[in-house]
Structures are given as structure tokens and as C-alpha cells.
Amino acid sequence: MEKKTLVMGVIGADVHAVGNKILYYAFTEAGFNVINLGVLVSQEEFIAAAIESDADAIVVSSLYGHGELDCRGLRQKCDEAGLEGILLYVGGNIVIGKQPFPEVEKHFKEMGFDRVFGPGTPVETTIACLYEDLGVTPPPKEDETV
Amino acid sequence: MKPVLLIDFGSTYTKVTAVDVEGEVLLGTAASYTTVETDIGEGLQNALAALEKTTGPLAFAERYACSSAAGGLRMITSGLVPELTAEAARLASLGAGAKVIGVYSYELTEEDIEDIAAAKPDILLLTGGTDGGNSACILHNAEALAKIPPLCPVVIAGNRSASAKCAKLLDGWTVRICENVMPRFGVTNIEPTQETIRAIFLERIIQAKGLSKAMELISGIMMPTPAAMLTAMKLLANGTENEPGLGDLVAVDLGGATTDVYSICDGSPTRLNTILKGLTEPRNKRTVEGDIGMRYSIHGIADAGGIPRIAQMAGIDEDRTAELIDYLGSHTDTLPDTDELRRLDGALASVAVETAVRRHAGRLEQIYTPMGEAFAQTGKDLTLVHQLIMTGGAIIHSDRVAEIAQFALQNRSDPYALMPTEASVLVDRRYILAGMGLLSEHYPDAALRIMKRELVPA
After folding, report:
1. Among B432, B422, B347, B361, which Cα is nearest to B392's?
2. Across the interface, which of B84, B368, B369 has its CB nearest the CB of A52?
3. How is chain A split into domains, by residue range?
């Protein structure tokens, strides 16, 4: 089956590069065609990359607390750019302080994100959601094939 | 002695350069008006007669030519996202020596197709989508074009999954399929497209433009003139196996109608905390500023610099400056034969060089992050390029090239423009660069050594 394409990056004036690299390797290992835009990524860059690569999902990271400001309007811009219905994920330390996660999740879902991941989410969780939402059959785990 | 003749059929002048490839010396240069309406060979014969007046009769072993006559190689490009495939397509065409008369992005509308048909390009370049990415746009565009009668050769260099289907849609058109100009996100791959453009230029364009009459006189028209310039600049920077080059360089060709800028360097970030954004630009990059030129496009220079600044630089009052600029714009063959005009031309050339190099160079954007200051770079960083080459009619006859060239350097008022910070300046006083690009096809060592000798410090 053809690989599904993800566009990923760290949004806004955020330069946290390490987690970005880890996610890139994990998503690639999980069988996705990954376009990694790195750090300091604007909404427009996510959209341009998704258009050219005909992406199936945009995975946004934010680690520095300004996620809410940076992510606002992304869904609307996607709609405007012809990316209606594209899967949008966001994760990381997306808000400042200790707000209860259910409220944060609700808020970002209202902003148009399909999935919202809090701090400390294992990458396997995100990958499982991607498989489910994109209708991909997960590859058999290595230890099960032995 | 083995004399070789290099010919540049320009839109106004036919320029000839004679070299001895055995002695690796320049024998002479001359020019005469291009005669494309009657027989292009006439202008060539006149230029040759002028040349042989200074050199004596020469029995040329080989003759090569480049051409920008009859409008040059006129191309229209189309891509998907303006900053991505549409930009890659534009850069590919410029690097192939084309005059890009239209750039389209996203889906072509019926009006766009009408405009394209009316513009009558020599070649149309269709791109869009990474390999495995978007194919809907390029397919739509091929289908939309197929509704009008075949216009010109089409080069398809988009998403490889869609190429064959595009070719099928354009039934009856001359179609060439190339590798994608942007196979992966942000990665440009423009050389295959440039090879194809050049092949079409050789096979079809020369004939269509009535330049083939000159063909029997010469061993071949090899390429459009700007492509010859870019070839010369690559050779001068990179050198050959036997002769070292000058290293990374920037070249400015200031003409009457346009200003071309060439850079041969990687242009990667040179500062800490700098992240490269967007399209990775080619190592051998050419840009053309269609609104910046010393006569036909003089008003573009006035707009870019502003009359007050140009007046101040020239030491002429503002009203007089505006009056002279209007005069020069409508009397395009005026030479700067008074002190006043020389000062004005010096000021105009300075602003033209500054504007064209600033647009060619990359740019930094300062970003304050919670982790401190960071920079996002788009385009090429030329700050560490230390060699500047100056050419073009308004430059090579000027006695203030050193002064004008300073305007190609980074200015304190705009430290985020990634222009060279310091550079030694060489001038193409004998106007040989395009000729040396042609010569380098068969005699790269000779071409390089002649350039190194004939380019003189400003």
C-alpha cells in the first residue's frame, strides 16, 4: 500500500529541535512518508508543504507555551487553501502553566484540531492514532514476527 | 595559431570576439548592429570587417555563437505553490538563459490560457507537486492547455506520477518529460529541465527565429546568451582540472533594459542560530530584474532609489534629475557625453546594482524566541563571497566602476540583506564573458586563462 504523507514541524518562534528529530525518526520508522519542516515553522509553510506533497496529515508541535496563539486559524487557512478535511494534530507543551488537560484538549479541538496530545505523550500513542485516523493497517511488530 | 571566433547575436548589437586557443590569448573584439529583420549574417559580416581592421585577416578554425536576438528565449512557467514549485520553475528557466515572460501558480484559468496564447512563448514549462505529491494541479493545467491548438514545445517537470498522463492530455503538442524541478519538499533539481530547454532551443527556436541563415557561417549556435554568461561564471568560479578558479563569486551585468545577477556559491547560512527556510536555491543562480536598466528601464531605477536620493548622489537638483531621467528613458541611445550625464549615470548605475543584488541575495528575518535571538534565512547567504565581477554596457565604459560596485555590498541601513560584505572587483572591460562561456564548451582551460588575464581590477 502507498505510504501516507505527513507534514510535521515545530510552529512559531519555537526552536526546540530535539523532540522534532525524535518524532521524525519515529514516524518514518512507523511507515509514513514524512516531510519535516524543522523548527520556526509558520502556518503558511505547513500549508504550502501540504499542498505540494498532497499530504494526508499535518502534525504540529509546540513546546514553548505559545501554542495557542501560533495555532489559531490554522484550520481555517487550510480550508481556504483547498486542504479541506486534512487531518490536523497538535502536541507538546501547547499552553502555559498547569491548565487541566481536558480543557486544553477541548479548546484546541474547537480550533479545528482532530487530536490534541499533552506533555509526555509516548510517540506510540500518536502513531496508533495516525494509523486509526488514516485507515492504515499497522505493520506487524518485530517481536511478534519472531 | 588557431583562431576561434565567438559571436553574440544580441538584441541590438552583434558582438564578435576572436581568440587564439593555442596561445590562449584574446586577439580582438568588435561589434555592429544586429540585422535580424533582413539577414542576421549581414550584421555579423559588418562586425567581422570591423574586427579584422584591428587584427588583420584571420582564418577561423571554428566559430561558435550565442543569441539573445529576436526577443531571446521567451518562456512561461507554471507551478503549484508560488514560493515552491512555481519559484523552482522560474529559477530553472532563468538559469537556462530564458527571458521569463510569465509565471503562473495553482490552477490555470481560462483567462490565463488566453493570456498565454496571446503572449506566444517559445517554451512552456509545466511543474507542480513533489514526486508522489499533488498531481491534480498539473493535470488540470495540461487539460486546460489541451483545449487550445498547440502553441509551442512544452516541458513537463512536475510530479513524476502525473508526467505521462500530462503528455497524453497534450496530444498533438511537442512534449518533453523531465525529472521534477522539486522532487522532494524544498529540494530543487533544475539541471535536467535546463538541459531540455537548451536542447529545444538548439533544435527548434533558432530555426523559428530566422537565425538559421547564419548557421552555415558558423559551427553552431550553442545557447542563449545568458546561459553562456552563466557557463563563463561557473568556469571562473570553479576552475578546471588544470587551472584553479577564483572561488565563489557574484556577477552583475547592468544593461539598458534589464540587470542580470549571477551567483556561484552554496549560500548556506554563515551565522549561528540561523535556520534555512523554504526552497533551497541552486548553487549556480541567475536572476533578471526586468524593471532595472540604464535606459529602457530607467524609471524602474528611479522608483527603486527615489529621485531625491539619485539627485543627491549625482549632485544635480531634483527637478533637473527627473527631467534628465525622462529624457534618457525616451532617448535610449544617449551616451553619457557630458559631466552632468556621467554623474547621473553613475548614480543610476549604483542604485541599479544595489537593487538588483539585494533582490538576488537572500534575507534574514530576526526572531525573538524564549530561548534567545534566532534568524530565519530565505535564499542564499552571499556575505562571505569576496569576488565581484562587473559587466554590461553601462559598466565597462565607466570610469567609476569601483565606486558603483560598492553598492553591491551590504549596507548598514539593511543588515538583513545577505549581500557580500566586502569584495575585490574585476571588470569585463573588453566584454568577453559570454564569448568565454561559449569557448569553454570545447576549450575550458583557454577560456579560463583568458578570463583571468582580461578581467581587470576596478
Report:
1. B432
2. B84
3. 5-145
Going by pLDDT thresholds of 50, 70 and 90, the confidence category of residue B205 is low
What is the domain range of residue B187? 74-204
The CATH number covering residue B173 comes to: 3.40.50.2300
Which one, of B196, B201, B199, B197, lies nearest residue B211 by Cα?
B201
Q: How far is CA B295 from CA A49, B42, B140, B300, in A?
A: 41, 26, 41, 10
Q: Which of A52, A62, A69, A78 to mutate to test the interface with B (most CBs of B within 10 A)?
A: A52
pLDDT at B210 (0 to 100): 64
Note if A114 is an active site residue. no
* CB nearest B129 (choices: A2, A48, A54): A54
Give counts: helices (H), strands (E), chain A. Answer: 7, 5
What secondary structure, in 3-state letters, does B395-457 show? HHCCCCHHHHHHHHCCCCCCCCECCCCCCEEEECCCCCHHHHHHHCCCCHHHHHHHHHHHCEE
Q: Output phi, psi for B393, to 5 deg.
A: -50, -45
B128 and B26 in a common domain: no
What is the grid cell recorded at B294? 540604464
The vertex-B215 CA angle with B213 and B221, nearest 5°, equals 125
The three three-digit cell numbers of residue B9, written as one number: 547575436
pLDDT in tens, B12-69: 788 999 999 999 999 999 998 887 677 778 888 899 999 999 999 999 988 898 988 7
Which residue, of B181, B204, B227, is where some domain finishes? B204
DSSP class per residue in B219-249: SEEEEEHHHHHHHHHHHHHH--SSS----SE
Q: Are residues B22 and B140 in the same domain?
A: no
The chain A residues in contact with chain B (CB within 8 A) are 2, 5, 13-16, 33, 35, 37-40, 45, 48-49, 51-55, 64-65
Out of B130, B370, B376, name the one closest to residue A52 (CB).
Answer: B130
B131 three-class SS: coil
How many angstroms separate the Cα of B237 from the Cα of each of A33, B232, B268, B280?
38, 9, 17, 20
Nearest CA in chain B to A52: B129
Nearest CA in chain A to B369: A13
Same domain, B62 and B163: no
Residue A146: band (very low, low, confident or very high) from pLDDT cuts 50, 70, 90: very low
Cβ–Cβ of A54/B278 closer than 8 Å?
A: no
User: Does ipTM surpass 0.90 in this model?
Assistant: no
DSSP SS3 for A20? helix
Does A14 qualify as catalytic in the annotation?
Answer: yes
Is A26:A82 a contact under the CB 8 Å cutoff?
A: no
| CATH code for the structural domain at A5-145 | 3.40.50.280
Shared domain for B9 and B114, answered yes or no, is no
Mean pLDDT, chain B, rounded, equals 91
**Which chain B residue is nearest to residue A35, measuring alpha carbons?**
B185
